[in-house]
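Contributing new records

If you add data, match the layout below exactly. Sequence lines come first and carry their own label; structure lines follow with theirs. Keep one chain per record. Anything else will be rejected by the validation script.
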Amino acid sequence: MADIERIKKEMESLTASNLVPVNKVERINNSDLEWKVVFDGPIASSYEDGIFLLKFIFPNDYPTHGPEARFITPMFHPNVSSNQHVCINLLDEDKWDTKRTVEDIILGIIYLLVNPTYKGGYPNSKAYELLKEEKYDEYFDKVEEYAYKYATKEYEHFNDFSEFNIRF
């Protein structure tokens, strides 16, 4: 059984945190096991002016196993799959530590956004390919295109996240 009290404490802690640029944390469909997290793009990065949405799905045996993290915002990154699943070492089953928190995961994701690497990423993605081939200008141009297109208020569907009940 998932440790619901811990999950609730993590949500409260994340909302009050000064370490992560989180704007909003909410349960999805009143479930303690599904969250939406809205955060600002990291400063001094290609994501800086964006507002990004993440979805966390906690397993029934959390914290024995870590949550799943997916971007709701379309992303161009070698560690984000075509279905927006986040590939990050600290969520790997063999590397998961029950002491880790959602705040740790978000900090890890932000680190990956600022310091992209194709190592450990999805090898069939264009982002992976561009970084592996050291085509950095092309990679960062595409990142900025996605960030502007999907993570700013100019995105035509930015306020249409009715499934997640998010309004800005």
